[in-house]
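# nightly structure sweep
# worker-07 picked up a monomer target from the shared queue
# config: single-sequence mode, recycle default, output format = structure tokens
# input follows
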Amino acid sequence: MKHLFVLLAIATGLFLISKVCFSQKGKDSKPSIQNTMNTINQKDHVVYFAGGCFWGTEHFFKQVRGVTATEVGYANGNLQHPSYAQVSTGTSGFAETVKVNFDPELVDLKLLVDLFFKTIDPTSLNKQGNDIGTQYRTGIYYTNADDATVIKEQIAALASQYNSKIVVEIEPLQNYYNAEAYHQKYLDKNPGGYCHISPDLFKLARNANPEKAKSDVKNTYKKADKETLKKELTPLQYDVTQNNATERAFDNAYNDEFREGIYVDITTGEPLFVSTDKFESGCGWPSFSKPISDSLIEEHSDNSYGMRRTEVRSKTGDAHLGHVFNDGPADKGGLRYCINSASLRFIPKDKMKAQGYEKYLPLLVKK
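# output follows
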């Protein structure tokens, strides 16, 4: 009898192990959804737009007020971690797609869908502009049922404006992988690059969601006049932010600063960068892989001193910050925001709450 109990115990153990192992294998075999962007608003929503070549679609949506971040990638395909070369064959099942993070308190999903329709021919199957292939099909991919209802209702309303059948896919997101670093913010880095979207539409996107005159949410960050800035800033800070000067490499306040904390615009106090995105680049100035949000900065072509560079300015303060380059760490997105210390003020983590930046503390949690 004792031997019988032992055999029963062994058999039961083997059965449980096999069930656990099978369950784990099934779980791991599902394609993963890559989630590569952080946002400051925990209520942010995410929606994925496939509108032909993703360079122009990304550049279009980043203009819209309320869009907090954009990223290009590949969605709803049949490979794991696809490359651009694989997607370009048209056999991977992936569509060139833009991941759009947005604050629903600032911009309505219906407006985003409406704007998306202005950038595409929704009756054209697997073709937008000069691009042909299944990877250039149009689609909107969602991650929750509530968004799906809104999207489908809006598509139905827009469909009445067309005589031909609408061929835009409306599907749940099955998988998503961010594209290679050189594809990210491509038109910012290559202003003359190919785009199937008319430049006039970029202007339309910028003006599509103007800030309401009367708003419950007031912007506490304001640009001071030149005379006030001259009194509040040091000569170097003023020269850098207002006259596009550059401080000396390796001889500045934050090149060697790696404490936890937040970096704000010296002219307005608006948060721009966090310590978790700072890295040692060896260039002699503070380097960041990305700003807190794309909506906080503006990028301009800079051909001064015989060089072709991309200048970075704060949007609210219109202060010169530095430049952005394509030689950053690949695992952090491939960008290097090279920023003058004189354009920033660093607030250590233990002082953020006292100085009114408590809501940004979650950004300091290392992934």
